Amino acid sequence: MNDTTNRNPLSRARDGYSSFFDTLRDRWATAPRWARWVVYLVLIVLAILLPADGVGSFMSPYTDWPTLLFFPIGGYILLAIGLNVVVGQAGLLDLGYVAFFAIGGYAMAIFGTKMHMSFWEILVVGVLLSAVSGIILGAPTLRLRGDYLAIVTLGFGEIVRIVANNTDYIGGPRGIGGIPHPPSLSEWTIPDNGFFDAIGIGGVQPLKYGALDGKPYYYLMLLLIVAAIIFAKRLENSRVGRAWASIREDEDAAELMGVPTFKFKLAAFAIGAAIGGAGGVVYASQSVSIIPTNFPFILSATILAAVVLGGSGNLPGVILGAFLVAWIPERIRGLQEYRVLVFGGVLVLLMIFRPEGLLPSRRRKAELAEGEGGMGGLGAEVGGPVTVAAGEVGE
Amino acid sequence: MKATTLNNLFSQFWPYTIDGLSLGAIYALVALGYTMVYGVLRLINFAHSEIFMIGTFGALGTLHLFGMPSNVGGFALVALVLALAVAGGIASGGSAVILEYVAYRPLRRNNASRLAALISAIGASLFLQQLFARLVIPQAFGLPKEKGALPVQGHFVHHTNVIHIGGFELSNDRLIVIVGAVLMMVALDMFVNRTKLGRGIRATAQDPETAVLMGVNIDRIVTATFALGGAMAGVAAALYMLRFEETRFDVGFLLGIKAFTAAVLGGIGNLRGALVGGIVLGLIEMYGSAVFGSEWQNVVAFSVLVLVLMFRPTGILGESLQQARA
C-alpha cells in the first residue's frame, strides 16, 4: 500500500522544492542572533513600505491597495495567526472561527455606538470578551475530539451569526452603522520631501484615522499582526507550546505524562479567540458598519484553508497562505465570478498533492508522514472520536 | 409572553408534529449517507450536502422533462414522486461515487491525515456549490448568470388532506414524505444486514484490516457505501422537492449540517440511529420554532447538537455500524 516511491517529474519537482526550503530552514536555525534581527528589521521596513502606490499599481490595479492590505489581506493574516494557535499548534479543528471575529466586531459596534467608548478601550474589552467566549465554547466542547469538535464549532459559528441576525437590539439583519473610527493619535505627517516620496510614503499621516486614507488602518493592523506573531512565537517556544505539541501528537500519551490537556486546549481556544476578536474590533472600526452576513461560514473555511495551504503550525507559512488566499482573488478580477469555484478545486488538489502545505513546519510534516490519525490506506484504522467519558457509555 | 408561545405550541400541536416528522424523515435519509461513510472511512463527508443538492436538481430536471406538470394529486403524484426519487437517486448516487473517486480516493492512497480529508471535503463542497450557482443552474434553466444563486421554483403538487380527524390533518405530500422515507430506511437496513455487499460494509466498518484478509475488496465497499449513501440523499432530495417545491445552490448547506447532527444524535455509524436522530431533531426543531419563533429554528437545532455531544457523545442508540448490528 505504501509504494510512495513516485518517480514522475511532478513529485521530483516537489522534492526539489521541499529540499530548497529545508536548506533555508537549516540556515535560519543556525543563523546568529544579529542576523535574525537584521532579517526581522528588513521585513518590518518592507511591510511599512508595502502600501506605496508603486507597489499598489502592480499588486492591485482594480482596488485601493492600502484598503486591500488592511482587509482582506491584513485581516486574513491576523485571523490565520490566531487560528493557527488552535489548529496548527494545539491540533484542534475549529470550523467556526469566524464567530470570534464577529464577537470582536460586534463588541466594537455596540460599545462604540451605544456606550461611546473609545477604540482603544474597546480593543481591550473586545479581546477579553472574545477570549471569554472562547472559554465558554471550549469548556463544554473540548472534551470532544477531532471531527466532532469541528462540527460543534461550526454550529457555534452559525449560532452566533443567527443570533446577531435575530436580535433587534444590535440591528438584526441590518446590522449596526455609524461605528466610530479610532481617535487620531496625532496629525503628524511624514515629510513630503524627496526621500519619503521616492519610497512612496511621503505625505502620509500614519496616526490619523479618517474615512479616506486606508494606510493608517493598515499600519494599525500591521502593529496587531506583529504583536500577534511575537505572542504566538513566544508561546510556541514555551512550556505551553510544548504542551500543545504533545496534545496534537498524542493526546492520551500527553495526559498520561501529566499534561493537563483540557486546560491547555482551553487556553489555545481562548488565545485563538482573543486574536480573532482583536481582528474583529479593528475591522469594524474601519468599515463603519457591519451586518451579520459579514461573518459567514465561508470565512471560517477560507481562514482554515489559508492555515492549511501555508503549512499548519508554521507561522511564516501561515502568513504566506493567508496572503495568497486574500490577494489572488482580488488580483485576478477576471476570475472574480469563479473565485470560490477555483478556490474549492485548489483545496482538493492541494490536499491530494501537498497535504502538508506550501511551507510546512518540519515537525508537522513528520506527523503527517507517519499517518497519525489518518484515514489509513484501507479505511478506518484509528478509533472513533473517543471522549473522556467514553468508558462510561461503552456497551 | 411565555404562556402565549406555549399556547401556540399546544393549539397547533398536530401540525407542528406532522411538519417535524416529515422534516425529520428527510434529515434521516440524508443522515444515512453521513453515517455510512463515517462508519466505513471515519470521514465526515462534508460534501454530502452538495450530493443532496445535486439530487434536488436531478429531481427538478426530471420535472422539466415531464413538461413541468402542475396540480398533480392522488396516485399520479405517488408515481411522479417515484420517478423523481429514481432520478434524484441516480444523480446523487452517481455524483457521490465520482466525488469519492476524485476527492477522497487519492487521499486514501497517500495515507493522508483526517484533517487533510476534511479540508478536501470542504473544498469539494465549495466547488460543487459554485459549479451549480455559476454554470449549471444558469445553463440548465436558461437563466442569466447572476440569477444562478436564486432559488429555483418547481410547483407541481396539488395539496389535499388525506386524513382529517378533529384537529389532526395529514396532507398528501407529508404522508408521502414520511412513508417514503421509512420505506427507504427499511430497504437499506435489509440491504446492509442481508446481502453479501452489506456484510462487506459491516465488516469494513468493524475492522478494515481483518476484512481485507477475509477477501473483502475495500475499494468496492467504499464505492458501494458512497453510492448507497448518495442514493439515499437523492431520494431525500426528491422528497424535499415534494415538500418544499423549490431549491437553490446552497440548499444542502444547513440541511447537511442538521442531517449530520441527526446522525450524531442517533449515534454515528448506526443506521437505525439515523432514523431516530432525524425524527427527534425534526420534532425538536419544529416544537422549538413554535415556542421561540421560526427564526430561532436553526439555533435550536445547533444547541441540540452541542447538548447531545456534551452529555451523550455516542448518541441515543450508540455507535454501532462497527458492532455488526448495523
From TrEMBL, chain A:
<dbReference type="Pfam" id="PF02653">
    <property type="entry name" value="BPD_transp_2"/>
</dbReference>
<feature type="transmembrane region" description="Helical">
    <location>
        <begin position="216"/>
        <end position="232"/>
    </location>
</feature>
<dbReference type="InterPro" id="IPR043428">
    <property type="entry name" value="LivM-like"/>
</dbReference>
<protein>
    <submittedName>
        <fullName>Branched-chain amino acid ABC transporter permease</fullName>
    </submittedName>
</protein>
<keyword id="KW-1133">Transmembrane helix</keyword>
<keyword id="KW-0812">Transmembrane</keyword>
<keyword id="KW-0472">Membrane</keyword>
<keyword id="KW-1003">Cell membrane</keyword>
<feature type="transmembrane region" description="Helical">
    <location>
        <begin position="297"/>
        <end position="326"/>
    </location>
</feature>
<feature type="transmembrane region" description="Helical">
    <location>
        <begin position="37"/>
        <end position="56"/>
    </location>
</feature>
<feature type="transmembrane region" description="Helical">
    <location>
        <begin position="95"/>
        <end position="112"/>
    </location>
</feature>
<dbReference type="InterPro" id="IPR001851">
    <property type="entry name" value="ABC_transp_permease"/>
</dbReference>
<feature type="transmembrane region" description="Helical">
    <location>
        <begin position="338"/>
        <end position="355"/>
    </location>
</feature>
<feature type="transmembrane region" description="Helical">
    <location>
        <begin position="119"/>
        <end position="139"/>
    </location>
</feature>
<feature type="transmembrane region" description="Helical">
    <location>
        <begin position="266"/>
        <end position="285"/>
    </location>
</feature>
<feature type="transmembrane region" description="Helical">
    <location>
        <begin position="68"/>
        <end position="89"/>
    </location>
</feature>
